TrEMBL record:
Source organism phylogeny: Bacteria, Pseudomonadati, Bacteroidota, Bacteroidia, Marinilabiliales
Family in the record: Belongs to the glycosyltransferase group 1 family.
GO BP term (any one): lipid A biosynthetic process
Substrates-to-products reaction catalysed: lipid IVA (E. coli) + CMP-3-deoxy-beta-D-manno-octulosonate = alpha-Kdo-(2->6)-lipid IVA (E. coli) + CMP + H(+)
Name the UniProt record assigns to this protein: 3-deoxy-D-manno-octulosonic acid transferase
Length: 410
């Protein structure tokens, strides 16, 4: 099995290099890993004590972030090394102020794992949610460096739980981890059935993150002025299929206002979205204070402010549900917004939970979107009820970070 794994890593690297000739993301993936040994050796302080956290991408970073913040608060003697697998995480968070070193994770080879750990010598390691890399995990185990998997979710169709030669080989990684902090009872049950007992149910650290966002949100008086006395729909992290439905709705509606925060903020995409709208619309970066009350739609053309914009909303629509999966619904729910999303949401526990409780709604087409929007906009009691459910759902799930810190640091 190890030969197959090595071969897979080799071909992954090979195709990444080929793709880098014409794909920007692949180019960043390859370029970011060049001369990583020199980069790391220059940045490492040999007298420091390090904690290493690895995240696949931006979403996993948001889950790991509360832990970094708490470690810095309670154990300031530690320095933090933050690694990413994907450019979409690294490029946005490469200047994260609480991390002492931010870099790409070198590809999972035996030599890379040994060299990385020889240079860094971390005392504790956190991998967030899905990240399982054979050589890094094996090398950490050999060196008795404790590895903790946090905010983990397991599903029955994952390789860990298949009785195939590959599945059995893959499952061995779970026994080399010091402790696995899972989000749910269902994940715990799968681990137990596989013979794994080094786990506990701690929930999802993202609840702690969004709760802190709600306390420390940025004020945008211009959005408050734009909203006026009308209800505001905040459409966050939308893709083209989401936007086509939302544009059709707002083009027919004069009794609500809408903020679009598309997932892709390129000039081409922003212009495409604006051209679809038949209502008075402006880019956020170009709004004039004197005209804002006359607008019905604002399009956010930058990143980093959506989580605070939700504060001004009455209803949230979260994009991605007509693609591979929805984006973060908790950032909206923490402010007490009912959440609407597309059909592909089943892999997201918080979406399934909130939908079953009545704080979230899924749609398949424009008719369903219009029906739910009209129901919430025209019935104050229905809106208040769904809002309360959303806010309470976040509030009752706070505390994962504290449980993990207590367990890891005894």
């Amino acid at each position: 099995m190890i030969l197959f794994y090595k071969t897979g890593i080799f071909f992954y690297a090979f195709f990444a290099r080929i793709s880098s000739l014409f794909n920007e993301k692949a180019r960043l993936f390859v370029k970011g890993r060049k001369n990583w040994r020199n980069t790391l050796s220059e940045k490492v302080d040999s007298s420091a004590r390090y904690i290493w956290m690895h995240c696949a991408s931006l979403g996993e970073f948001e889950q790991g972030r509360p832990l970094i913040e708490e470690v810095k608060k309670q154990f300031p003697d530690y320095k933090i090394v933050l690694t990413f697998f994907s450019p979409s995480g690294f490029e946005i968070r490469k200047n994260y102020e609480l991390a002492d070193i931010v870099m790409y994770l070198p590809l999972d080879t035996k030599r890379n794992a040994k060299d990385f750990l020889n240079l860094l010598k971390p005392e504790k390691v956190f991998f967030v949610k899905y990240e399982f890399w054979h050589f890094y995990i094996s090398e950490l185990k050999k060196r008795n460096i404790p590895l903790f998997i946090v905010s983990a979710i397991f599903r029955e169709n994952q390789q860990f739980f298949k009785n195939t030669p590959w599945g059995k080989w893959y499952r061995k990684m779970l026994f080399k981890v010091e402790h696995i902090f899972v989000q749910s009872e269902a994940s715990a049950k799968l681990l137990k059935m596989a013979g794994v007992d080094n786990f506990s149910i701690s929930g999802d650290t993202r609840f702690d993150r969004v709760a802190s966002i709600a306390k420390g949100f940025r004020n945008f008086p211009i959005v408050e002025k734009f909203k006026g006395n009308l209800p505001l729909i905040v459409a966050g992290s939308t893709w083209k299929p989401d936007e086509e439905l939302l544009v059709e709705f707002i083009n027919q509606n004069s009794e609500a206002k809408m903020v679009f925060a598309p997932h892709e903020v390129s000039e081409v995409n922003i212009n495409r979205l604006i051209q679809m709208l038949k209502k008075p619309v402006a880019r956020f970066s170009q709004i004039k204070n004197s005209e804002v009350e006359n607008l019905q739609v604002i399009v956010i053309d930058s990143i980093g402010i959506l989580s605070s914009i939700y504060k001004y909303g009455n209803i949230a629509y979260i994009g991605g549900g007509f693609g591979v999966g929805i984006h973060n619904i908790l950032e909206a729910a923490t402010f007490g917004l009912p959440v609407i999303f597309g059909p592909n949401h089943q892999r997201f526990k918080e979406a399934v939970d909130l939908k079953s409780e009545g704080g979230a709604f899924s749609i398949n087409d424009f008719y369903q979107l219009k029906t739910i929007m009209d129901s919430l906009l025209n019935d104050d009691e229905a809106l208040k009820k769904a809002s309360k459910i959303s806010k309470n759902y976040v509030a009752k799930n706070i505390g994962s970070t504290s449980l993990i810190i207590k367990k890891v640091f005894k």
